[in-house]
Amino acid sequence: MTPTIKIGTRASKLALWQANWVKSALHENNPAQEVALVTIKTNGDKILDVPLAKVGGKGLFVKEIEQALLKHRIDIAVHSMKDMPAEIPDGLCIGAIPQREVATDVLISRDGQHLAELRRGAVIGTSSLRRAAQLRHARPDIQIVPLRGNLDTRLNKLQTENLDAIVLAAAGVKRLELEHRITEYLASEIMLPAVGQGALCIEMRQNDPVIEPMVQALDDPRSRIIVLGERAFLNRLGGSCQVPIAGHGEIKNNTYHLTGLVADIDGDRILKSVLSGAMDSSESIGISLAEELLARGADKILEQLQTMESDNEES
Hints:
Blueprint: E1 5-9, H1 13-29, E2 35-39, H2 43-46, H3 52-55, H4 63-70, E3 76-80, E4 92-96, E5 105-109, E6 123-125, H5 129-138, E7 143-145, H6 151-160, E8 165-169, H7 170-175, E9 184-185, E10 200-205, H8 211-216, H9 221-237, E11 245-252, E12 255-263, E13 270-278, H10 282-314
Parallel strand pairs: 1-2, 1-3, 6-7, 6-8
Antiparallel strand pairs: 3-10, 4-10, 5-8, 5-9, 11-12, 12-13
Helix pairs in contact: 9-10
């Protein structure tokens, strides 16, 4: 038996739910093993008065936790997969991707109206460029305002900041048992999810002989195939979670289907395509899909976004 295994996590209610789920799963497989949570404040948690896109950089919600993992202050890190940058630091790896929750985005409106029913000029809160671009494409008349904070904070701001609606990931709403607040599950034709949305990432040090078998026991092979294909798509595009890139994989009839999207910030131009193939080729499918969109002009969109991100980091 090893000393207490320390799980690094953010301190939000949702992050703690996710880390406690991993803790319980480890206990179930290893009843005598002590497991403890260590909360870590990330840069994304500290800067709450600036839209995510203007904070700049990658790994806003994971970098400090990864540093603790590399320095052996923790043994395992639990993240929302959609917060994970395309590149993982040397010495670390994705140890497990547990069974994925629904990847969909949801609309929560103040008066119970669906997206198509919202008044002209309605104000919707989100700090996600991906969500904002697709919302503007679907409803060019609406107004998007920045919305930061944990899930509870954003739900409260729906009332306190007089918003007509907000958009959140269904997975977080369901995990915190707030499904009764959902007005509408947004169809992927309108709102393609973020890469990895709804999945957890259990990160660990590479080749850790004690932790590796415990963590790998929590892996769901089907979810891993789907998510790694999405992440290969993101990685080939060189994107972070703060740019208008979306990717959603599915397995149907033993075939992997990946839908990918790149948009400009205003939602005027959206490049979208689907590629399918063998389940064991999900990562190569992700790369090929990214290359298809790059050839169609996604490279120009991403260059503009990278220039903006660089300007934000310098200002």
